[in-house]
Amino acid sequence: MIIQRTASGLHISAPAKINLFLNVLRRRSDGYHEVQTLLCPISLFDQLSFEVTPRAEIEFELLLPQSSADHSPTPTPTPTPAADEVDPAWDIPADSRNLVVRAVRRVQQALGTEQGCRIQLRKAIPAAAGLGGGSSDTAAAIVASLVAWQSWNRSLALQIAAEIGSDVPFFLGSSQGLGLALATGRGEQCQPLLTQPALDVLLTHPPVGCSTREVYQNCVAYGNAGDFRKIVDACGTGQLEKIGAQLSNTLQLPAAGMTQWIDRQLSLFADIGAKYALMSGSGSSCFALVNDPQCAERLHRAAAARGIERVYAVQSWYGSSIEQQLAKLELGESL
Predict the structure, then answer these.
(1) pLDDT band at 333 (very low <50, low <70, confident <90, very high)
(2) What is the dihedral of CA 33, 34, 36, 41, to 10 degrees?
């Protein structure tokens, strides 16, 4: 995440992620699944603004994309659903059910503060996509509320993050920064990796979403994604061919059995010559690692013709740690 001070409070850019590797090992007795996954932050950001208010209420405003100008980055317009339809990409609660509000309420309780806040969340990362937008927003809200109301506390932040969602701790990064990380347990135990391969990523999101719960419920082939050490080693080389050859996701098959849009996206990537493609997380977004600048232009044209309007050309993104950024802010330096 990128933390900035504003005249009225804090502004945080919250990145999305892709899963370069995801192996579901088993179903646990608590109902969750044990996983191994390699998470990579990417340069697609939601924007969260946080302002302290004297009363204990949490005011929350959700801003959703209405056109291509509202996305950053996105080269094609978002289709406008019929009046009686809800676009699954932006079917996001704008009240107390939103994870951002729940996270801030939890911080408020932990600190015992009587102050409140005004939050504005501008979305660019589609929901039900496997891109971690909700988790990233939640992490940003935890950071903003801790910094604004008292002081940064990584231990408390990680505790609250793990309570709310499995991917949330990843977006807090480590004291060294935010980058590639191996997540285990139900996804909340993160081991940061030092390697930082520069990856060009083409990303698509179809007009349907995937329910994480349902995709996991339909997963029966546990542990068939291979050895995660191979992709970790491949990332260490920084070579596209070696990284691409090790892409793997146990959840891709069950998700593809639930919606034809997974195979449609993967076929689309194959047709434009992007051979290193995979579904991200539990879907429904898919991505391809590329090194051909012409691939993006071909994808934009071909995707629109097949009813896939959300197309993003992004990169792997590695950021400074929260502690490093806050230290610079205290010194009045620009980040």
Answers:
(1) low
(2) 50
Is 17 one of the catalytic residues? yes
Average pLDDT over all residues of the chain: 91
The answer to whether 51 and 9 have CB atoms below 8 angstroms apart is yes
Region of 312 (left: φ > 0; alpha: ψ -120 to 50; beta: rest) is beta
Say if pTM beats, i.e. exceeds, 0.85.
yes
Count of CA atoms in the C-beta half-sphere (13 A) of 122: 14
SS3 per-residue string spanning 280-311: CCCCCCEEEEECCHHHHHHHHHHHHHCCCCEE
Name the nearest CA neighbour of 299 among 207, 211, 232, 201. Answer: 201
Q: Is 242 a catalytic residue?
A: no
Contact 74, 309 (CB under 8 A): no
**10-27 and 248-249: which strand pairing?**
parallel
Which one of the listed residues 17, 87, 123, 137 is annotated catalytic?
A: 17
What would the mean pLDDT of 286-296 be, rounded to a whole number? 93
